[in-house]
Design a protein that fits this description.
The structure is a single chain. By secondary structure, this protein is α/β, with parallel strands linked by helices. The protein has two domains: 124 residues, Aspartate Aminotransferase, domain 1, CATH 3.90.1150; 243 residues, Aspartate Aminotransferase, domain 2, CATH 3.40.640.10. Helix content is 39%, strand content 13%. It is built from eleven helices and ten strands. Strands 1-7-6-5-4-2-3 form a seven-stranded mixed sheet, sandwiched between helices. Strand 4, helix 7 and strand 5 form a beta-alpha-beta unit.
């Protein structure tokens, strides 16, 4: 640390220089991220509540009230009732870890059964919590093999995990079938970090979406990220659980805090400005606004698929959501070649493919420009 402070102008110049080399969603080059540019209203709300910390909720009863309203709105969106409890955390990783933490402490068991397609946060959770991962292979449609999962059930299983929108392909596990094989007393957690703000609105658009949420009786908890397709600010994840009392199993006393309504979660300090941002976003958009955004993303996804097929490229699967994975000869090589041209795309591992995430900042013109570069790259191969 310097002995004396520096002028504001110098500091701002340094910040602007750093920002200039970051990739921004407005640059029109990012097709790899599951986040997007938040609503302007969300950014305003975030700034208003920048001092809020629901880790010490007794000081912030107003912010706490907003959080309760957000959870109630999410519960209604995800098939729940007024008994659903939860809170806003830093993202899907914290939500998933906390869900397994609760499952371990309620059941006093340590095995977690989950599909090969899970987000890395579940492996992280098992490492942190001393739990034992039991990985289940996938069907030909890249969803969890229910029969194989059923064979994994024994007296040591604490939780089973299903995915409502996998990170790589965006497919949805058969949550109803999973619920049918989960023994009584075992938790069934649904990771809908991405799908939570997509699947309900696909249903509004007439897509056949199987029940994946609290409308399935055996589902005990759900994670959903407002900072992804929810259009809120980072960091903003949500964890919802069917029974409020489960939070008591992970609660730790902190007598020096004003602990009114404190959520028992992994984080102590919580960036609760995201609560206000999520409240503002959900109230501003409503079901109609989110349905319109999802419809637009699916339209651009269909455009990207048609453009790919003109080049002779086929998808791994027909897109379920706004994620498109393409079979190319060398996915990593194509990613690196596009990166040299300023495009940010990603690769999927199962199966190896070029992965495009069509978020609200992605336009048809952007897609056309990227595929034009892909044609040049393939032509020079």
């Amino acid at each position: 640390m310097r002995p004396a402070g520096e002028p504001r102008e110098k500091i701002m110049a340094d910040l602007e220089a750093a920002l200039a080399i970051d990739y921004g969603f407005s640059d029109g080059r990012v097709l790899s991220s599951m986040c997007t540019k938040p609503l302007d209203l969300a950014k305003e709300a975030h700034a208003m509540f920048i001092e809020s910390n629901l880790g010490n909720a007794g000081l912030y009863p107003g912010t706490l009230s907003l959080e309760k309203q957000v959870i109630d709105e999410l519960s209604g969106l995800l098939g729940g009732s007024g008994k659903i409890a939860g809170g806003i955390v830093s993202g899907g990783t914290e939500a998933n870890i906390t869900a397994l933490w609760i499952a371990r402490n309620v059941t006093h068991r340590k095995k977690v059964v989950f599909p090969k397609s899970v987000h890395f946060s579940f492996h992280k959770a098992c490492d942190i919590l001393g739990m034992v991962p039991v990985v289940v292979d996938l069907n030909e449609d890249y969803t969890v093999d229910i029969d194989l999962a059923a064979r994994m059930m024994d007296k040591d299983v604490a939780a089973v995990v299903g995915i409502a929108g996998t990170t790589e392909l965006g497919v949805v596990d058969d949550i109803g079938a999973l619920a049918g094989i989960v023994p009584e007393g075992v938790f069934l957690h649904v990771d809908a970090a991405f799908g939570g703000f997509v699947l309900p609105f696909l249903r509004e658009l007439g897509h056949k979406i199987p029940n994946f949420d609290f409308s399935v009786g055996g589902v005990t908890s759900i994670s959903a990220d407002p900072h992804k397709m929810g259009m809120s600010t980072v960091p903003s994840g949500a964890l919802l659980v069917r029974d409020r009392e489960w939070f008591r199993t992970i609660h730790k006393d902190a007598p020096y805090l004003d602990t009114l309504g404190q959520l028992s979660a992994l984080s102590g300090t919580r960036c609760s400005a995201a609560v206000a941002a999520t409240y503002a976003t959900m109230r501003s958009l409503g079901r109609e606004g989110y349905t319109r955004i999802v419809s637009d993303c699916m339209d651009v996804t269909a455009h990207a698929l048609a453009r790919a097929r003109k080049m002779g490229l086929e998808p791994v699967i027909e897109p379920v959501m706004n994620i498109l994975c393409l079979r190319v000869a060398d996915p990593k090589g194509m990613q690196e070649a596009l990166d040299r041209r300023g495009w940010k795309v990603s690769v999927a591992r199962n199966p190896p493919s070029l992965r495009l995430v069509v978020m609200p900042h992605v336009t048809k013109q952007m897609v056309d420009s990227m595929f034009a570069d892909m044609e040049e790259i393939l032509g020079g191969a």
